[in-house]
Amino acid sequence: MLIAASAGALAAGPAPTADVVDASRKPIPAAYREMAAQMSREAGIAYRYGTAATYEGAAPAPTLFARDKPTRLGAPAPDHAFFWQVGGPPSSDPGAYSSNWAQLLFVADDPAQRVGVSDVQVSNYMYNTFAQLPQLSWTRTMAPGGGIDQVNVLGYKTAGIVSGNPVATGRCAGRPGFCSQSVIAFQNGVIASAGSNTSTNSTTVKLPPDKVPTAIAMTNDSEFALVTVWDTTALKGQVAVVALAGLCDGCDPYHNGTNGARPYYPWWDEWHQAYPGLPNMGDIAFMKILGYIDLPGMAAPTEIAVTTGLDQFSTTMGGGHFIGESSTPLSRHWREFVRGGPHYERYAKGGMAVVISKSEQKAAFIDLKPLFSYLNGIYFSEANGQVDKLGPADDQWPYAFARQSAQMPKVVKTISLGARPTAVKTTVSAKSPRAWIATEDGTLHIFSIDGYAPGGTPAAPSAAAIAEVGSVGGIGRNATSMATSKGDPDSSVDTLNQQVIVASRGDRKVSWVRFAPNGNSGQIVRTLRDSRLVDPIAIEDADNFANPGFVVSVSDYGGKAVRNYRYGPVTFSDGGSCARPKGCPLTPTGSIAIEYAGAMSLPGKPFQLTTANTP
């Protein structure tokens, strides 16, 4: 299958970065290995994301409205100080607190002083005030290093576990309250969990020295991390499958959830025993590399996306409680998860991962059903006693592919593209699941993955179901990042599945692309351009839980900052100065209904971020 390139593709753009493949798209051994060693540095960023915009002829970007200088809230809660801009005056009641949190990756100016990962408060509501300025969280300002260095990562560095800068980060996305931790890959092959103020579990695994990570995606409920790697010995591309287990905060995966004297945060409802590969709330306490999936004809994978098709709210019971805590131990509750049981619809049965290679102009589609089918078959059967034998060895739970090869996911299709792919994303839980692939020429290609997510049907779908069903032009040249849309002022839109946010590094703009109900066509419904944006390289949308704020965050690589923008009204669930239904509106600039929410400068160049709601 060949997709024709759009006319005028990058005709005025910069020369391509030196490549790692030859004219026949075969890896050049020396160039391949040299680039693999640079993935966390500026040379690697230039390879993965292209050069910054140098295009001529575009109209000057407007300067969007920015609110007055933020006000520091120091009273009535001096220990909870932060800068706010919307609402007020501050009250004496913290109200229905809600906060959005991000892990931000950057190429540090001085790697000896900074770990290249930072915790950032994206937005925050309390005391009748709303903060839309990206800033250090009030929970981190007293941390070592002034709070810039991510706490878990700082610990890994201090212990000598992590060396080198971060390469990639991944986090599941969808409903607020889930996805509490991200997973980060480092240049030395370590894959590590990074927590928040209320999910502090930490754990790591390490890839072999000749397998270099380039990208990470996490399944809907943090069951697995899928890590694309370059094998510098065999000169081939692979996907490492890492089983994850969420656990009560501070609990020991090897001692059935005991946590000693550490505080336990009951609102997560996490498991009290480690069950790698089952849905969880994201407080990751255990990881294990199960094995590697070869990518036929693909030596240099650069990005990955994944969906199981499972709505995260499906994993909850009455009152919105996650199934984990009340279903521990599985030895007593597994029958509740079999067909006909009350929890049968509350876990994933399959899924689809999509991997792209920029150099080789290919996309590979991976069926995850074998993996989920095997693990579910053990957990929810009389055989579940073996899951107590948790450990890193191949013959300890969960078993490695080398011991149980039937569980290995299968590459069901690889396609060639007519232009270099630069970003990939999938729907979260749509009835008509789709994968979106952006190409360097400014086109967003829409692929059907019908039948593969949620993957609950007994029969395997045909690979013919994977096909391009439409496209959207005008997203901007060199679209380096796509984000799951987590809300919109138009409440009729199924944002998780019917909309995606795209950052174009080439044209220095951000586009909201909205798709038709059948998912086969779309159009741009909102565009962000701002004179302050120097070099947008990554984008993330904030959750809109309890107190919606419609805040999007942009990693400005060349500008050495993370910048926030607000594209809808702020509403406080408990009334106050931004009471529903109208809330506090934004201030447009002419016809552009987006305002500048401020920036946080960084000691380096940010290139990736992930966000989630945190209690």
Provide the descriptors you would attach to this structure in a database record.
615 residues, mainly beta, Methylamine Dehydrogenase, Chain H, five-stranded antiparallel β-sheet, four-stranded antiparallel β-sheet, 33% strand, globular, disordered N terminus
Written account of the structure:
The chain is mainly beta. It has a single domain (29-614), classed as YVTN repeat-like/Quinoprotein amine dehydrogenase (Methylamine Dehydrogenase, Chain H, 7 Propeller), CATH 2.130.10.10. Helices cover 8% and strands 33% of the residues. It is built from 7 helices and 31 strands. The protein has helices at residues 29-36, 42-49, 151-158, 323-326, 330-333, 369-379, 495-498; strands at residues 71-73, 82-84, 86-87, 98-108, 117-126, 129-131, 166-170, 182-186, 190-194, 204-206, 211-218, 224-231, 236-246, 284-294, 303-307, 352-357, 362-367, 410-416, 421-426, 434-439, 443-449, 466-473, 479-484, 499-504, 509-515, 522-528, 536-541, 551-556, 561-566, 595-601, 604-614. The chain has a 5-stranded antiparallel sheet, with no helix packed on it. A 4-stranded antiparallel sheet has the order 7-8-9-10, covered by helices on one side. Strand 28 (551-556) and strand 29 form a beta hairpin. The radius of gyration is 23 Å and the shape is globular. The N and C termini lie far apart (46 Å).
